[in-house]
Amino acid sequence: FNEFTYYGELANDTSLKNTKLNNDEIYLGLSSQEASRIGSFFGVELGDNPSYTLTRFFISNSVMLHLDLSARSFAYTLENLFLVKAVEILDTSRIIHTDPMFNEYFVETNMTFISHANQGQTSLDPWNVFKAYTVLVSYSDKQRFLSDISFSLKYKNLSLELIKEEESPSYFKDDVNCARLKILKDQIGGVKKADVSHLLSPYETYVENLVYSDGFYYFSEDGLTSGFLHPVYVSNKKEKLNEIADYNYEASFDLQGFQGSSIIPPDGVIAGDISSLEENSLIFQVNKADDIYLAGGKAQNYSEVCITSSLANELFTSFSQAVNKTLYITCLSEIEYKQDGYKNVFKDGEFKIAGVVESKDNALVHDSLFLSSIGEEMFDFGSEDKAVDKCIVNFKSGYEIQNIVNNFNSEYFDYSFTLPLQEVEADLNEMVSYIATFLYFFAFFTSLIAMSLLSVTGIMFIDEDESKIAVWTSLGYRIKDLKKYYAVLISLLSSSGSFAALISLVIVWKMFSFQLTNILGQEVAVFAPLMYVSVVLFALLFTFLSIGLANRKLNKIAGFKNKQ
Predict the structure, then answer these.
(1) pLDDT value at position 1?
(2) HEC string of 80-147?
(3) Distance between CA atoms of residues 5 and 153, nearest Å
(4) Which is nearest to 54 in space by CA: 31, 33, 38?
């Protein structure tokens, strides 16, 4: 009775009339064998049309279906009679009704049970039962329907899940070409895609792209760290993925988020796991306007996917051979506990490779809803894994996004909005200031050493040239001319050293900027003009001091000669 068949599901495959039935009336579906036994019991010759014959007999004799229920554990009894209005020969026995809410009336009114809509709620009261509504959607329209629901403000507090065969096996006995979706109240919360779409709609022209972080794929708040929370494995050979599932079916422990660390993928398989220590593990990248397609083009639906050139070269002999080939994927979707230990449950899928995007990362490339789609379609993730905990929006450059954040904070009190890269920038500026301060002191002390060495070098030149100086002065050279000569010499030494120091600083800062750009994923220009000015000023200061010391030495030599 609870898993009755709604008349509308039978469509044109029935001779039953679409007559509104009362709650104490039913259509009765019988198998051919059961119809034959009932006909024999009543002494009715069924003939060529058993449905018609039994229907006439049941109606003329007011045959009723008697239901007797009891539950000794809580002293429950129920007796119900239902008038059979028609009989239909089907593959299995079933109750058929024209009211899609027939079982709701039966459970809540006839059985006097109390229903609730909180899935997973446990109660010691046996009179409380969980109730979920079901909607039937054609497979061809299911993805669009789910997308429309998730972006609807009206239905944002609902959660839709595919009904699994183990939950309601009787549903899957029918050859109905549609998906059954369970409608639940959202109990987890998180960021609603409908809210994201609504609040970003006035700023669509400024949005580069956005990504969602959920229980399947994680993004840090700054978007710089990401990875699969459920380990996934991809290959161009399905048998390679079957190896992983076969060899790792049993597990000694439930390591939860680190379960993938115990799995060693064979050659020809690329793994994606945020807890992995492997270099260049598989990640996800959202489509960007400046993506460079080396082969093929953008994926048009969720049966297709784009991969990066790095991943293509890992799995194929060259990226050009990857387009239109099949990419197989498997996911460690859950860990079950059985009596003899833990079991790793792997779910599989496959995609057609639509294009190859230039990138040094091993990544799958698609739109922002791709992962949530395959998480539900391929891997049967539930509400907890589908719940979005944050959304990261990348704005185009040249727009003051602080104004947008201020508007969001003043209008949407259910969420918090931050500019994480501003915080990163503040930390970065602080770090740069520390490095700059260190370099200032380093430049100062090295300049002191350089001044000492330069002064000593200048004096050594003069000491070595003392006999030459005597000759030069006897030939008519003035001390003033010699001072100019040594001043030029010291200036050349100082200039060459300063130039080398400036070049070294430029190289250091360029390397520093390059590393920050790689870490942050966007260009970071680090320029500290004060550093270069300081080097020049130190060089000038110490050059003048060295020239002064050299002049003093020349004056002493000149004074000694004059006394002689």
Answers:
(1) 80
(2) EEEEEEEEEECCCCEEEECCCCHHHHHHHHHCCCEEECCCCCCCCCCCEEECCEEEEEEHHHHHHHHH
(3) 32
(4) 38
**44: its two tokens:** 């009715």
Which sign, positive or negative, has the C-alpha torsion 402, 406, 411, 414? positive
Hey, how many other C-beta atoms are within 10 angstroms of the C-beta on 376?
Answer: 20
- β-sheet bridge partners, residue 430: none
Q: Is the pLDDT of residue 539 over 80?
A: no
d(CA 107, CA 122): 18
Q: If phi over 0 gives left and psi between -120 and 50 gives alpha, with beta otherwise, what is residue 30?
A: beta
Counting residues of the chain whose pLDDT is more than 70, the rounded percentage is 78
Q: What does the block give as tokens for 440?
A: 């200032």
How many beta carbons lie within 10 A of that of residue 529, not counting itself?
Answer: 7
CB 127 within 8 A of CB 113: yes
> What is the sign, positive or negative, of the torsion defined by CA atoms of 188, 191, 193, 199?
positive
Cα separation, 352 vs 366, whole angstroms? 12
The CA-atom distances, in angstroms, between 196 and each of 151, 176, 392 are 8, 35, 10
State the Cα–Cα distance between residues 97 and 80, nearest whole angstrom: 16
Q: Residue 217 corresponds to which tokens in the numbers above?
A: 């794929």
What b/e string do you get for 458-475 counting C-beta neighbours within 10 Å, with b at 16 or more?
Answer: bbebbeebeeebeebbee
- What tokens appear for 397 in the block? 């450059």
Task: For tokens 């994927």, name the residue.
Answer: 329
Joined tokens for residue 369: 């809803």
Range in 41-55, 274-288, 449-463 with the lowest mean pLDDT: 449-463
Contacts 24+ apart (CB under 8 A), 251-259: 251/335, 251/341, 251/342, 251/343, 251/344, 252/341, 252/342, 253/342, 254/335, 254/337, 254/342, 256/335, 257/229, 259/231, 259/332, 259/335, 259/344
Domain boundaries, the chain: 1-113, 226-384, 423-563
Lookup: tokens for 382: 């539930």
Per-residue pLDDT, 366: 96
CB-count burial class (<10 Å; 0-12, 13-18, 19+) for 365: buried
The partner residues of 346 in beta bridges, in order of sequence, read: 332
Judging by beta carbons within 10 Å of its beta carbon (0-12, 13-18, 19+), is residue 192 exposed, middle or buried? buried
φ and ψ of 421, to 5 deg: -70, -25
Tokens of 50: 């058993």
Lowest pLDDT segment from 215-229, 286-300, 483-497: 483-497
> Which secondary structure element, helix H or strand E, spans residue 275, and what is its range?
none
Q: What is the mean pLDDT of residues 224-250?
A: 90
The pLDDT, as a whole number, for residue 74 is 84
Residue type, 503: I
